[in-house]
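Lay summary

Proteins are chains of building blocks that fold into shapes. Our project writes down both the chain and a compact code for its shape. Here are two examples, one after the other.
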Amino acid sequence: MNRARVLYHMVRADFLERVRRYSFLLTMGFAVYLGYTVYAGQVVVQLGDYRGIYNSAWLGCLMALVSVAFLTLVGFYFVKNTVQRDRETRVGQILATTPMSKSFYTLAKTISNFAVLAVMVLIMAFAGLLMQLLQGEDRHIEILKLVGPPLVFGLSALALTAALAVLFETIPGLRGGLGNIIYFFVWTALLSISVAHVKPGQRLTVGDYFSDYAGVGSVLRQMEAALRQIDPEYKGGASLTAGGGAGPVSKHFLWTGLQWNSAMLLSRALWIAIGAAVALLGATFFDRFDPARAWRRSKKAIESETEAQSREGLVGAGSLETRPSSGMLAPLPHTQARTRFLATVSAELRLVLKGRSWWWYAAAAGLFVACLTAPLDASRGGVIVAAWVWPTLLWSQMGSREARYFTRPLIFSSERALQRQLPAAWLAGVVLAVMTGGGLGLRLMLAANLEGLAAWIAGAAFIPTLALALGVWTDSSKPFEALYTAWWYLGPAHHTPGLDFMGTTQASSSTVTYLTASAALLIAAYLGRRTRLAYA
């Protein structure tokens, strides 16, 4: 069997395995929801106070911009699990015994990631078709203008996303939560470079096309040039806005579509080639599922894993550990069965902090002191933003630790697990917020700033509640790491009203909203855990 055929079968098997998982339904659901937000006018492209008529050309470009702006971020977190899944299921150990090269494996996994993301792009293109028919501004379908831009720009950008997901999984320091956070800033930088090419009144150069990762500048500057021919008074200014933050649309113009040229098409091929190069780079760091070759793994950790696997093998073979015993455990005395809530909270906090180095505590203490000693405006507007991003990877464990370490049978079989363990886990997360940002709470209390104190309390409650609810319902830390990092950047870091859950300024605070959201999320976490207990 030649290599191309092996590659095809490997990619096909991996893709089919993914589409049978609930996470794939979640992926498709997000793409459908994203298409709905465009239809509902929550995601729009505007040029000043102009918008294009909803014809095939405009909607094709709109869906292309939405795909590169949102799917390149969210899609990364959806597909960044393929190598880890092979580790957990031990399929990787089987693959390691074959002649398959490391570069072949990383390239196959990248193509598999790309196939999943391509389905999302196709959904966006289909959503554009439905939107054109439902809006009714121009029902004449031009399939190439409608489907061409999402496929050309969306797929080229997502090729790099698919490769970066594999690269991050092959680098030990980036395959976990830290990599999820770092990718957000990588995505921000790449998108910022593309947006920087939107320069009113200037023609696109060949270099602009090739450095425009997402194609945002390539599309918007052609739109601006076409509008300027229709309305010479147009002064420039183009934006892709989400959440209804754009200004009012009072004028419409006819957009006839992109003027394709060789530089534009070759630039898309270049970014696909860059994605392939990144996939091959991942092979350099890939350990081929060999614990002895894993980077930065201590001898003690390898021996511990080997011992655990040996013990599991003995158990599976029917060792003494599997033999039934006629003995019975004595019932737990009623006096010892009473709730020791504070002890449970302490235990949960120790679990959260387990494995932290001294420098982590030193940084947390520094942030606490900075919140306490900095000028109040600086402490509330800036220091707290850093203080409450520092424990992100610790909060992300909440609610999903039982699934990650396979301790559900132990935890869920304990007495009053729902009434005792879940509130204790939540309170441990709140204590973590106080450990890093409590200095600001003390400052606001001493200053009798009740409005600021209420906003601080809302933030300290909302963050761990969000982490707990997402962890309980998804059994994964990735949703919180992805959502919280983006929310933190768009909201508190920029003092955006409605998104500022930390209340960094009086104008951007939404105390009642986030206290209410905390209560709703806590109920959601309770219901999710109760459902897990019912099927445990």
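And here is the second example, written the same way.
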Amino acid sequence: MPRLPKTAKDRAELRDRLFPHSQHRVWPDKEAKGWCRIPRTLPIVLSMLDRDKSLKDGKDVTRTYLTLLANNWDEGLVIINDESEFAKMSGFTGTRAVRSWRERMTTLVELGFIEIKPRGDKTFGFALMIHPYWVVQKLQAAGKVQEGDLNLFAQKHLDFGASTPTRDPFTVIDGGQSAGSHPTGNQPTVESSELDKLLGISQGQQK
């Protein structure tokens, strides 16, 4: 089997051989606006949600999550000005649209995908988008990720050259302790997660 092209130039040349004169209709156009960044491992994360119905209490949260990603302007903060608009973008219509969207938002909070803050009298005023690496790690620690999915996530994380986020040494991802100064002044010991081990990372060596 021939080797696949690795550089942008090689891939562009292969594209033009396979699909002549296609450079002006491909996505994304390098000059285009109106698109957002998503992690390349996102399909695996969404597959985890689709496969295990218990994770989301039978609710489809993937469209709600994708809507949040589309409204994330790289700072990790989503400002929710209009709940009905977010509900419609997430595929909900009718009299229960906003209620259904709020239920999915609550599920995303419970799963660790987002954190929320109120704005005025709205419970869902702001959403903080959590790094998918931490989400998978939290779900794995709770025994909610199948081994095959975890292995595939770790493999593609490495294949894509994804950066591994630095952990606050005073934060326990599994939910026991919030970030901040440790009361004793000593750094607590946090064992490496199964995901860290698959990626060959020990605590304190993340980059």
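What can we say about the second shape? The helical segments are 8-18, 42-51, 62-70, 83-89, 97-111, 132-141, 147-159, 194-198.
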